[in-house]
# Entry
Amino acid sequence: MSTVATPFPQPGFGATSRRDAWWLEPLVTFVVFTGFVIYGNLAVFWPQIFGHPYFEIRQNAEGRIDWEHGEAVAPYLAPFYSPLIYDAHSHHAWVQAEKPSWWPGWMPFSSAMLILIFPLGFRFTCYYYRKAYYRAFWADPPACAVGEPRTGFRGENHWPLLIQNIHRYFLYAAIVFIFFLTWDAISAFRWPVVENGKRVGWTFGVGLGTLLLCVNVVLISLYTFGCHSFRHLVGGRLNCFSCPVNGMYKPTTNYKVWTWVSRLNEHHQLWAWCSMLWIGFTDFYIRMCAMGVWSDPHVTF
Amino acid sequence: MGKVTFRIWRGDKSGGSFNDYQAEVSEGMVVLDAVHQIQATQAPDLACRWNCKAGKCGSCSAEVNGKPRLMCMTRMDTLPHDQPVLIQPMKAFPIIRDLVTDVSWNYRVNKKIPPFKPRPPDAPDGTWRMGQEEVDRIQEFRKCIECFLCQNVCHVLRDHRRFGQTDTDGNLTSGKGPSEAELFGGPRFMIRVASLEMHPLDTVNRLPLLQKELNIGLCNITKCCTEVCPEHIHITDNGIIPLKERVVDEFYDPLMWAARKVGEALGIRRRKSLPIVKP
Ligand code: SF4
Ligand code: SF4
Ligand code: FES
Ligand code: FES
# Structure
């Protein structure tokens, strides 16, 4: 064991000489993250809880909200269901079918189940989120110079936390997802023209949902491209930023990109929060429109 | 500004307690000034280490109101005066007396890190060339004043006591042992390794050392080191995380592993730094 002894005994959970409100930050993190996880689960199990998935706004010939017999009257797709791989009716769906044929009959299904592992895995293994949940959920440590509840500690050296080392693979997936979300935002300007409950064409339009989806892409991109693994990939892994080209010391492209990414990376925590809250709200907003709780202000041309 | 009570820990390794002292606080004073005043007027035997009083020597580390700080850089007007100001020695290290701790463990960790070993000189006159961009990146790490506040606050050392094993002479032996005795090098030495690993002229590979001996995997990036660093070094973001990513390249990423194998088979040498002479 260690030969370094101190007169201060191993402090118990929460033991500290600090006098400030050190518990506030972990508490806020705990409450908001828990809320987000609960909402995420609601979104996944929406069809089981509310009867239908409600990821887009469907109305019937009388202009009333009607999931089963209606037609999409707005171009929005709730971001937790993007990309929409399976759906029997939606024009967003890649495969026009209720669910995959191999899906076990006894298991509840929603299209979000097929894709949500990627963004969730990305955030779960993100260096910022790790800091936040190790502090707020594991209390390891709850805050700096504050005692911990457990003495055992294995760091990220052993299974299962060893998995954190593959964060970069979730990054690759997250970059692909930016394309999906960008596509959703662009499509949100292309409004269906619906007559008597049938789509007869498309037209240009803008709604509040369009704006939410556009800002969503921007915030997710600021978060994703400030990723530490991305920073490593674009240049951090090199020791030589200005290796001579034809004998001249000039900053390489790697260096320039690394500088931009570093600038985003400095505020990675901020973008993590903004993008998380925004995507959650956007999803909720579209879902509430889809369920007829409120309606979306928009203009079409 | 009036009289303020200071509650200072007094004792040695056999034990101790907090004693209250009064000191006259005036404009612009720092905590170290008050400690000096108490030494001069009430407690001439109060032990405290200091040297520069300018935040540059890293000697006066302590915990003020529970926060690891340099006493000479903690202004009295940032602390509440209506309750006693609590001053304790760094909690993670063995006590010598009063506010003075034995930080020699850190020097033993330092000895495990292979020093800078540059490539052969770039120019016939025995000099090297490197770009400003590389210098800028590692300059940040060289601001370290070895106050060891980051080592003190790091929970892997402070709470989980991963100081590793020492032989009878007090030298560090291998970090690996029964898992409770796994050595953690601590944030200060992570950034020392970073300053060497990211150096464009250096030729040593310290990644196996980082992974096995200094156990970078024990750091769970909770960033307390960054919060307390008086030199505002971004220890976690610019030092530890980039090193973790390099360790992933070397030991965990299957694609990187495959790329290395293919590279070896094709006889491509790994480019760490390029020795090229400016004309
Ligand atoms: S970030 Fe790592 S090195 Fe720094 S205090 Fe936390 S666990 Fe220790
Ligand atoms: S990194 Fe900062 S906190 Fe750590 S020893 Fe150096 S100056 Fe002190
Ligand atoms: S570090 Fe946060 S997303 Fe990669
Ligand atoms: S006395 Fe030198 S850093 Fe405080």
